[in-house]
Specification:
The structure holds two protein chains of two kinds. Helix content of chain A is about 0%, strand content about 55%. Chain A has strands at about 5, 10-15, 20-25, 35-40, 45-50, 55-60, 65-70, 75-80, 85-95, 100, 105-110. In chain B, strands 2, 4, 5, 8, 9 and 10 form a six-stranded mixed β-sheet that branches. A four-stranded antiparallel β-sheet of chain B has the order 1-3-7-6, with no helix packed on it. By secondary structure, chain B is an all-beta fold. Chain B has strands at about 5, 10-15, 20-25, 30-35, 45-50, 65-70, 75-80, 90-95, 105, 110-115. The chains are: A mainly beta, B mainly beta.
């Protein structure tokens, strides 16, 4: 069965610093991978998705993620953190029934 | 409306009572999903509706949980005889395309259910 592991339930970075949120997946088939963001008291919003095209995927708000098959990873990055990036981020993978399997989420904290 | 809406936004109930949670998907979206988000955990799939097809109920945790989708639009998730472990945020999502590899799900703000 597919699974998703997000390393670190909380990640804290300084404003202007690099953001790196880690996601590893297990999948026996070519994966469809997603990153969603959840701002406080709001629904989840799609940041970006990998669908077997380019391995480097660019999303909204300056985020991008790189699919690395050899490492079964799909880490999310942003070169320079803004205060407005403070939120919870979820990685997800589609299973063989195209059902989304979710990671536990990582809360991103931005220090002024 | 422009997005997925859910009501109520918050619901507090007593153990043993029944609750109904409502979801209005984006107009024209044929696929509708219900998820449960417990504190500190990722989303847990509950049920999936696609058009007039029989729903995928494989994620419902017990027979106390049921859902309907009337007219291919609005959906209601019902929890009977609520238990404290049912306390969670219940999220609804809709999608223009049927469940597949590349479809994007659009989420509502959720209903926070607290069972006392």
């Amino acid at each position: 069965a597919q699974s998703v592991t997000q390393l670190g339930s909380h990640v804290s970075v300084s404003e202007g610093a690099l953001v790196l949120l880690r996601c590893n997946y297990s999948s026996s088939v070519p994966p469809y991978l997603f990153w969603y963001v959840q701002y406080p008291n709001q629904g989840l919003q799609l940041l970006l998705k990998y669908t077997s095209a380019a391995t480097l995927v660019k999303g909204i708000n300056g985020f991008e993620a790189e699919f690395k098959k050899s490492e079964t990873s799909f880490h999310l990055t942003k070169p320079s953190a803004h205060m407005s990036d403070a939120a919870e981020y979820f990685c997800a993978v589609k299973d063989s029934n195209y059902q989304l399997i979710w990671g536990a989420g990582t809360k991103l904290i931005i220090k002024p | 409306g422009a997005g997925v809406s859910q009501s109520p936004s918050n619901k507090v109930t007593e153990k043993g009572k029944d609750v109904e949670l409502r979801c209005d998907p984006i107009s024209g979206h044929t696929a509708l999903y219900w998820y449960r988000q417990s504190l500190g955990q990722g989303l847990e799939f509950l049920i999936y509706f696609q058009g007039n097809s029989a729903p995928d109920k494989s994620g419902l945790p017990s027979d106390r949980f049921s859902a309907e989708r009337t007219g291919g639009s609005v959906s209601t998730l019902t929890i009977q005889r609520t238990q404290q472990e049912d306390s969670a945020v219940y999220l609804c999502a809709s999608s223009l395309a049927p469940r597949g590899g590349t479809d994007t799900q659009y989420f509502g703000p959720g209903t926070r259910l607290t069972v006392l």
